[in-house]
Structures are given as structure tokens and as C-alpha cells.
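Training component of the fellowship. As part of building independent skills, the fellow (R.M.) carried out the full modelling exercise for a liganded target. The chosen ligand was hypoxanthine. The inputs are recorded below so that the supervisory panel can assess the work.
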Amino acid sequence: MTVATEEHVRRLPKVELHCHIEGASRAGTIKELAQANGVTFPVDDPADLYHFTDLNQFLDIYAVVCASLQTADDFHRITYECLEDAVEAGVRYREMFFSPGFVIKLGVPVSTVWAGVSAAVIDARADLDIGCRMILDFDKPSGGGHALEMADFAGAQDRDLLIGMGADSVERVDHRPFAAAYESAGRHGLKRTMHAGEDGPSDNIALAVREFGCERVDHGFRLLDDPELTAEIIDRRIPLTVCPTSNVMIANVVPDVASHPYARQRELGVLATLNSDDPGMMRFDVADEYAAVVGAFDYSLEEMEQISLDGITACWAPDDEKAALRSRFEAEFDQLRSSYGLPARNGAG
Ligand code: HPA
Ligand code: ZN
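Fellow's submitted model of the complex:
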């Protein structure tokens, strides 16, 4: 067992599977775009924008961020910038959410959003050392009709850029009307996921994986409340995209990372990946998250390298791309170890 230093784990190569472009946007950029689009910005210093103590307050600020985004160029800018920031956090591959429900309500068509987002992904792939695919999250409070529209829109796009459909925003709504949207997404060959068991019950996780065909679950904080479901998730190797610090800062369902069930989930054999959720709004990225779990759970370097590799297992890239990522990560693990005077890994992972 090798001691993991914070500095070392920040530098590990990472996959990130739970991150929202709107929540990853830079406050300074949002202020500029708000001004350009004639939207009132609620604070003088953009750094003051991102203060919240629960999911509802967070979503109110999310709405301000989204109101500032109106043109395809606006969406290009925040998508590209947040991929630049991801590179700084050591992310080599990211599957990222965009949530058009907020701006659709303000009259911006989803096609405008996607024009900017998809162009930014193509540009970032060419310019930056990061791979990326997008997941369209429908807005749960907007209901089943909106969900179905989003599934059909997503289904008609290039699958190499838009790989899946998910759902976010408040969890305390009736989820059963989303069945048709998930069925349509499946027919279109989209991968499926859903925010579930974040501040709502484990029943929503059960719905996702038993009724909606979800291949991953976003958050899954409440999974261990249901031992049978936990056994099923382990058995079916359904990954969770866990965001411990977000659960402390946004959903406010746990007082600190040390009290989070992440370590217990992994101990039981759940494929629980580690992610930031909304790094811009939280001012806390996935490198910070790696450092936070080392501090909270005393993880060894081997465990942290395994967490990094589990991101590759859980991602939806084609098999050859996953194999290439794995080889690259293993080589980088050993290079990093060598730079700290540590012996190479001995075939672990
Ligand atoms: N939960 C619900 N809605 C969201 C989240 C989240 O973690 N992030 C952005 N929108
Ligand atoms: Zn989220």
C-alpha cells in the first residue's frame, strides 16, 4: 500500500462522467454574456454569483446562468472553456451534460444550443488533449412531453458527439411519465442515465435501472438504503457517477465528505466513479474531489488509481478508445510514480 499525497492524486489522469456545462461555466464569462445579451446580472463581483445552500437555491442560480446563454456562440464558449478547465484538472476524457430545458423556456431552440455545444466539442477535440461526448439531460419538472421531444432530438444527432440522454433538476416529481422518453432514447441507440437518489429516495434509482433501461445512475447517494437494489446494481455492474462534494454543497444531504457513503459503496463492490458535478458553480473541480476523498477516507494511491481506471470502465466510449485510454493511464501512473521516487505498479488494476 502506497500513501497517496494530495498533490499526486490531483495529477492523476482522470475520466469524468458527471459534469454539467452550465454548472461548469466560469462566473466571469457568465457576467460578460449576461451583459452582451441584456440580462440583469444579480451581483457586482461574478465570484459572488455562486452561493447556495441547497438544491432549490442552486437551481435558482442555475436559471440565472442559463438566462445569460442565448446564442450558439454563447454555448460554444462555455463548452470549450469548461473543457480547457477540465484539462487543468487532469481530465483526459469527459462525458458531459447539457440541459436545454432552461433556455427552451426562454425561447432558445435546442438546435441553437446543440449547434454551439457540438462545434465546441469538435474544436476541443482538435485543439486540446481531451476526448469528449455529450449527454442531453431533459428537465424533469418540464414533464413527459418535453422529455420525449428531447429524446427524439437527441436521437437525430451524430451519435459520436451526442451519446446519451439523461435527466436532471428537482427529483421530487412523478418520474413515471418519463418512461416513453427513455423507451424512445433506447430505440434511437442512445445510452441512458438519470439523476436519481440525490435528494430523493432510492425508489428513483430502482425506476431508472429496472423500468427506464438506464445503464448508469447519476449520484445514487441513497442507493444503500435498499440492500436488494444495491446487490442488483453490483451484480449488473451498473456504474454510479458519484459527486461527494456536490452532495455536501448542493443537495446538502450530508455534512461532509467523510460522512458520504462513497467509501462504503466501493467497499461493497459498487462501481462508484468520482466526479465534480458543477465545478464552476462550486469552485471545486474533479482534481479537488480526488484530493477530498483521499483526506476523507485515507485512500491509498492504489485505490485512487483504481478509481481513475473505474472511470474508463464506466464510460461509453467505443472499446478501442477505452483500451487506448487504459494503456495511456497505466503508463501515466508509472511516470507519475517515478517522478515521486515511487516504484511502478505491479500489474494492479
Ligand atoms: N442535480 C439536479 N440538477 C442539476 C444538478 C444536480 O446535481 N446539476 C445541475 N443540475
Ligand atoms: Zn448533476
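The panel noted the following from the submitted structure. The chain has one domain: 6-339. Residues 1 and 300 are 6 Å apart (CA to CA).
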